[in-house]
Amino acid sequence: MTDRARRAHEVDPRAPLAVVATVKAARRLVGVDAQAARLGLGVGLTLADAQARQPSLIVCDAEPEAEARLLERIADACARFTPLTALDGRDGLMLDVSGVAHLFGGEDGLVAEVEARFARQGLTVALGLADSPRAAWAVARFSHRRIAPAGLAGKDFARLYHDMPAAALGLDAETCADMARAGLRRIGDLALRPRAPIAARFGADVIARLDALVGDERGAISPRFAAPELSVERRFASPIATSEAAFAALAKLADDLAALLEQQGKGARRLELMLFRVDGGARRVAVGAGRPLAEAKAMARLFAERLAGGAEEEIDTGFGIDLMRLSCLAAERIAPAQGEWQRLEESAGARALADLVDRLSARLGTRRVTRLELVAAHLPEQAFAAAPAALGEARLAGQGEPAAPSDAPTRPLRLFERPELIEAVAEVPDGPPLRFRWRRVLHEVAAIEGPERIAAPWWRRANAPTRDYFRAEDALGRRFWLYREGLYGRETTQAKWFVHGVFG
Amino acid sequence: MSLGDRAEDVGRLRRAVAAIEGRREAALPHAAVRLPLTRALDRALGGGLAADGLHEIAPASPADGSAAMGFALALAARFMAVRGRAAIVMAEDFALAEMGALYGPGLAAFGLDLSRLVFVRAPDAPALFQAMEDALKSGAPAAVIGEAWRLKSYDLAASRRLLLAARAGGAPALLTAASAYGAADGFSSAAETRFEIAAAPSAHLPSAGGGRGLPGAPAFAVRLVKARIGAGGAGQGADPTRTFRLTWRAEELSFDEPTLSLPVAAAADDRPRATRA
């Protein structure tokens, strides 16, 4: 908090700094830096008190949104250590590093690496590494040690945890205050007393949390992103700074991933590329494929399409990229190709189309590349749905039957999203129109067919007007799909006319 | 197997042989595979519509925009039927907002196989042309329809790129320009063919009540403004003063030239034969 404020407001690094916010109608300190803490200032002190004690204190306003954004960015950057990262409240991150530490030279190495990386960016972090999320939380916030060795018991456990305040259990303030009133201020006070009375007085939660510290309970974190099925990464001793070099590295990563996929006989349906910059920035780029991809070239091309999309989509190498990771988020088994020549030929065409759809979807977005599917619905505007073509041949539920091609089609080629109001003249109020004016042009109706009466779905919305559709052709041969809203005499006396679509 | 199909196979074999013999593409005269439309139009086009060319379709008036799109879709339906492959329909966002979105049930009734259509919406004209070029080059689709609205970026270079992409992929590019109504004559581009389309009164079906008739099969008044049939082409070329009347038969996926039943004077059999002067 203070690190961000120091950077944002360009405060002298040697001056004590505090961040204030309005808590319970008073300006209170919500964050203090190391210097301020050394001067005896702490979180919760009112601003007036703090300034009376330390006139040299520099004060900044808290900016919760900016802080939350920073935390998310840090979480992204932490993905370089482990794919499983989670936000912990408003001011913490939880990383699941099971089976990861050896990549950084053991737990000590990992902790040192994390600390060094953030220190370089001017961020001070409090770290804790332990068997369970709760223990790590307590160690990070309430202990000078950083790593809680696995399987602590007896004296070792006591040495680490017993001096921590009861708040290290992560209980709410009220319970902590209750326990303090009973003289239970430290974890040791709780751990050395019989469990049953404590559970009876303060709730079973207290005991459960105490057990979690010992490591009896293995909590799980809820990561922001699911762990990928497969991932390959490359670290660069000297960071790469050009996008050409990044693409070259991407091609190599794709080769590696394709080899892994081939071993499993699978193809990738969703891929994600993560770029970690030296300055702590991280960027995720995801692409989808309409068919399981196993060729490295096709994967690299999808990313190239996506990253060539526009100015903001380009790779921003910044001060250099020092880690690239290519992950396969979803894989699918590839159906082995049939040997028959004809079939091969056929599937080559289908594959070319699928590749094209993937490339266009990557560049323009999946919503812009669609297939139309028919839906069994009476209202014309609900009779079709657009599904992303990149999903492949997935079918919608409740599919409608396509109308047989007909020399005189009864449905228009184009449908207006909003039916356009027209002025129409009819011989009788409930008869077909004689002429109408649409987009400032008067059309004389030369041929007409109708009405085709379509009632609104009364089981959804009562009193919706019925529509009488007409197929009208004007003197010059232009064909329109018109409707009159409301049954004359029963639903309305002033029928309104609309153009809903045009025929080819 | 239709005529267009067989001609296409021959063309493909010729190209394959040329590739095996190591001859350059330029050494072989470019012989386009042509899709027959109707007899009169084919004569003007030199045997049909080139299956690997750029064809522009413009409406005659603002209200003919949907007829122009209908004509393009009908051509695509014919190409799809002959080649048994998918077609890609691309449109600029603005064109869809102005002209109305393409309607699934209507497309099916018009004779298009929805399961073999892919729709692409492009945010602007340059993106549309780029996407069309990629689609054409991939060689996957039977035809690519592009509906452009803002034609500022459509110049000789852009049209030439589309034409070359169409040649490379062997698929036709059908570019409809709804905003360029009435401007078909004063337009210059690398396109092989340019049509100006107007809606034409259909052959009305008699109504049971005896009043106004029912609209019949979609009819188009087609003006061939430009037709480049190349050296040694057998076609007559474009004749902008001539209007072809075409009717789309969705059931057979073919165009018809309507037989006009005009009142003619009864043939008299008691009159002497006209003598030549």
Number of domains of chain A: 4
The shape of chain A is elongated
N-to-C CA distance of chain A? 63 Å
| CATH architecture term of the largest domain in chain B | 3-Layer(aba) Sandwich
In what range is the share of β-strand residues of chain B? Answer: 15-25%
If you had to describe this structure to a student in words, what would you say it looks like?
The complex is a heterodimer of chains A (504) and B (277). With 504 residues, chain A is an alpha+beta fold. Chain A folds into 4 domains: 2-62, 3-Layer(aba) Sandwich (MutS, DNA mismatch repair protein, domain I), CATH 3.40.1170; 87-214, no CATH class; 230-342, DNA polymerase, Y-family, little finger domain (Dna Ligase, domain 1, 2-Layer Sandwich); 414-502, no CATH class. Helix content of chain A is 32%, strand content 28%. Chain A has helices at 2-9, 34-38, 47-53, 64-78, 106-120, 133-142, 154-161, 173-181, 187-191, 195-202, 204-214, 243-264, 296-307, 341-364, and strands at 17-23, 26-32, 58-61, 85-88, 92-95, 230-240, 266-277, 282-293, 321-333, 369-374, 384-388, 414-426, 433-438, 441-454, 467-474, 479-485, 496-502. In chain A, the strands form 5 sheets. In chain A, strands 12-13-14-15-16-17 form a 6-stranded antiparallel barrel. In chain A, a hairpin with a 4-residue loop joins strand 7 and strand 8. The model of chain A has no long low-confidence stretch (mean pLDDT 80). The model of chain B has no long low-confidence stretch (mean pLDDT 83). Chain B has helices spanning 3-21, 39-45, 65-83, 93-99, 104-109, 125-138, 156-169, and strands at 34-35, 49-50, 54-59, 87-92, 101-102, 117-122, 143-148, 173-177, 193-200, 219-227, 243-249, 254-256. Helix content of chain B is 31%, strand content 22%. Chain B is built from 7 helices and 12 strands. Chain B has 2 domains: 1-31; 32-203 and 213-256, Rossmann fold (3-Layer(aba) Sandwich), CATH 3.40.50.300. Chain B is globular and about 70 Å long. Chain B has a 9-stranded mixed sheet, with helices on both faces. Chain B is an alpha/beta fold. At the A-B interface, helix 14, strand 10, strand 12, strand 14 and strand 15 of A face helix 3, strand 5, helix 5, strand 6 and helix 6 of B. Strand 10 (369-374) of chain A pairs antiparallel with strand 6 (117-122) of chain B.
